[in-house]
Amino acid sequence: MEYKDTILDLIGNTPLIKINKINKGLRPQIFAKLESANPGGSVKDRIGYSMIVDAEKKGTLKPGGTIIEATSGNTGIGLAITAAVKGYRCLFVCTDKVSSEKINYLKAFGADVIVVPNTYEPDHPEYYVNVARRIHEETPNSVFAYQYGNPSNPEMHYRTTGPEIWRQTKGKITHFVSSIGTGGTISGTGRFLKEKNPNIQVIGADPIGSIFKHYKETGEIIKGTPYLVEGIGQDCLPANVHFQYIDKIINISDKDSFAAARRLTKEEGIFCGGSTGTIVHVVLEIAKNLTENDVIVFIVCDTGERYLSKVYNEAWLQMNRMLDTEVKVLGDISYNKKRKGFGGMVYVHDNATIRQALKIMSSKGFTYLPVLNGSLKPVGSLREGHVLSRMLDDPKMLDAPVKEIMEESFRVLDAKSSIAEVRNALKEAPAVLVSNFGRITDIITRYDLIDFE
Asked: Could you say which of 18, 21, 44, 337 is catalytic?
């Protein structure tokens, strides 16, 4: 009889699929590493298994124990599969950004799932990772898998994914493209491939709003802004992102990510999620400048079945302005700025000094600055002319807090507001603030609107 001992024997050794249609007119050979062929439908099956086995070897996970993790769904599913076979209980903390399909998938394995808001900052006690850590500390005989810093995450890809790709391409791979979430896939696979051939280019595909590209290029940590693609990108730096193995990071919009995912599904028959779409868009962009001697391999992160209510739901796409349409919104102006290299929003805290605010204005060349409080809510604004006028009257105020001279806050508009509404608002004020998923993510001036139109 031919059989596998358990479902865990199907993890890894995923096939490489040649891309034939969406790359029409491009010279390189392009291959999809079909991680959606894992039994749990995603690349995270590999690390779900490895983190549990590693914890068993270390003695931190004992019989009857509970596995706790903060997850966007796929790592939880990978953990739940291995836990089901080995007899462990699972408890997962997700944000309300996670699709209902993935949450129901986790519950189908008998896992407990806690859903928290997606609006909390990483240093907030209710941030989903912090909630998971707190539950672990309160739960006897439990382990906190913590995929973001667990070394068995990139190590698993170093031992399996990298060697598989090298073997499947007979060492001919020239470019490896992966998303970056915890960093495990790109870091572990990239490390192995570069040890085999340091000339292989390892390229990260990342959503606009994630902090990785800015950090890679400047070494500066900025605040991330919300985006719709699930499971990739970060607003903090996980220990498992090993930038020394990543040659370049390219930012892609939600709209382009979802369009590429739907195209891969319709034209190549590879049913994938939005994160794979982010990767595919990068692959097609870099392939334009490569030759027939180049071989690109990219990761298919998971299956599209997990996003039937989102990426493959036209009503949801339309509601979130993700379909091609002539109707433009405020978020498009913000995206236009970021596409041209203008990074995250610059602001000043209300307890900062006037001297600090003037320094920011001078160094950035800004005439206006929004003033936010400790909860990053808008409480006022600064105009360079007004500030300088006050300083001429009383130079001693330079070290006073900006709250003493700030003016009324700029108007806040939702990112989905129409251009007509933005135009009317800017007739009355020099700038407006962009609200995205309840967070202030950008400031748009009259110049930004003119540049967009």
From this structure: 44
